[in-house]
Amino acid sequence: MADLDLTILMPCLNEAETLASCVRQAVAAIAASGVTGEVVVADNGSTDGSQEIARAEGARVVDVATRGYGAALIGGIEAARGKYVMMADADSSYHFEHLPRFLPKLNEGYDLVMGNRFAGTIERGAMPPLHKYLGNPILSAAGRIFFSIPVRDFHCGLRAFRRDAILALNLRTTGMEFASEMVVKSSLAGLRMTEVPTTLSPDGRSRPPHLRSWRDGWRHLRFLLLYSPRWLFFYPGVIAFVVGVVLSAALLPGPLRVGAYNFDVDTLTYALGMVLIGAHIMVFAVSAKVFGVQAGFLPVNPRQERLFKVITLERGLLAGFLLLLLGAGILGYALYLWHAAGFGELSATRMLRLTLPSATLLMLGVEVIFSSFFLSLLGLNRR
Q: Which of 63, 70, 259, 313 is exposed most, by the fewest CB atoms within 10 A?
């Protein structure tokens, strides 16, 4: 049970150069806002005396043994005593005096209030061009597209939230991708989110930042993809399947000429391969979604529950056997033609237009049958 209004939380790993100034600013911001609060420094194993500096300035130090930006923040949130938590880096890049921009939104009922540096001010030299014009815009756009989240600055380190709401999300990532995990899981859980403009200043450290642009950018993107089976698996699978079916349908009757280019059974082979690949990826999409729900890191989808009532194991098996039967029927017709020719030579292109679709249908049938069993196994706990 929270016994304070607010905790200002800072993750810390060897921030002796800037920590004292940040703690003083945080203490002043709490006093100016007229709320009961505390400053917590979640120390991640500093060796430069950061812990003593924090205590001397009036902060409470929480030691977090597990290394990583996310791990430090998770430990700090768990130890916080405030109803609300405002988090920011301890490198003097964020302005704690912006607290009054966040508190009213929390009091209005928002669960997560994000700072938006692009709607506010990014001072000269505060953000590398790679982050400003490529990394942040692309990753934030991906998050909005994948999850329909009304946030335009996914990775702002200055944000405030209801402690109990964020703890209920069971955040797990220990690295820099924690910033994305908080926003994504808040959206999936139906938490209310909004943004307020804020300022980013150049940090006051003489050493390089802990952030590694390409490594941590990839970790953010990887997290977004893993939490969106639709975009990672389903949509690419549907596109491959549909393109493959359309091309196959155009090539099955005979060669297709487009301008100076002639497409025949070689193209048909790859088109049918796209059909198989697309179907396989779509199975991955459904399996990943079911597993994610069962593991607890994706929310239950009512539409998925309704779908499972329609697409049962038995119906999946029936569809698979029908595909096998159709594939076997085409194979039987091809064997009949070979028999009629005295088992001699036949037109290769004519026979490939039979054997390739037959093999594709047989493989699809096997895919559907065993996927039905696998999905039924994944769904046992759901039932």
A: 259
Q: Are 103 and 29 contacting, i.e. CB atoms less than 8 angstroms apart?
A: no
Range of the domain at 95: 4-226
Q: Where are the beta strands (DSSP E) in 35-132?
A: 37-43, 60-63, 82-87, 112-122
Same domain flag for 132 and 45: yes
Within-domain flag for 309: yes
Q: What is the domain-level CATH number for residue 92?
A: 3.90.550.10
Average pLDDT, rounded, for the chain: 90
What H or E segment, with its residue span, contains residue 162? Answer: strand 159-162
Q: Is the pTM of this model over 0.85?
A: no
Q: Which residue type, as a one-letter code, is found at position 172?
A: R
**Residue 81 DSSP class:** -
Write down which residue in 160, 193, 226 finishes a domain: 226
In angstroms, rounded to a whole number, what is the distance separating the alpha carbons of residues 146 and 162? 24
Q: In whole angstroms, what separates CA 223 from the centre of its chain?
A: 4
89-144 residue pLDDT tens: 999 999 999 999 999 999 999 999 999 999 999 999 888 888 888 888 888 888 88
Task: Return phi, psi of residue 256, to 5°.
Answer: -120, 125
Q: Show the tokens assigned to 117.
A: 């540096």
